Amino acid sequence: MVLLPDKQEEKKRWLARDALNMILWAGKHRAEDCIIYYRHRGVPGDYLAILVSDIREMGQLFFHTDDQTIPYHRILAILCNGAIIWNKRGADLSFLDR
Predict the structure, then answer these.
(1) Which of 83, 78, 65, 75 is closest to 23 using CA atoms?
(2) Residue 36: what are its φ and ψ, rounded to 5°?
(3) Residues near 30 by Cβ (< 8 Å), separated by ≥ 6?
(4) Which of 51, 53, 58, 93 falls between 20 and 30 A from 26, CA-CA?
(5) How far apart are CA 84 and CA 33, in angstroms?
(6) Three-class secondary structure assignment of the chain
(7) Pairing between β-strand 47-51 and β-strand 83-87 as defined by DSSP bridges
(8) Do the beta carbons of residue 72 and residue 15 sit within 8 Å?
């Protein structure tokens, strides 16, 4: 499910990077209230979560925090105030029910 800011764009599938830019620059959501869940193999459940406010720089293919670089294609879902505002098509999000 993707919540778009404009009904004219309903048919467009946003990328994770687009959703992050919307959070960081459009002002509809506070970055402190938004969580990125991303694939991280080797940890229990194979995913980790960080706050959008932890992003220090956004590149073309990756975003950077103070201590890691994460490719956009690893993002599974982005939640703001508990609501999914972006999710990867076909991703298993059953871990959100825990």
Answers:
(1) 78
(2) -105, 125
(3) 80
(4) 93
(5) 12
(6) CCCCCCHHHCCCCCCHHHHHHHHHHHCCCCHHHEEEEEECCCCHHHEEEEEHHHCCEECCCEEECCCCEEEHHHEEEEEECCEEEEECCCCCCHHHHC
(7) unpaired
(8) yes
How much is the CA Rg of the chain, to the nearest whole Å? Answer: 13
Q: What letter represents residue 36's amino acid?
A: I
Candidates 57, 61, 54, 52; CA nearest to 19 is 52
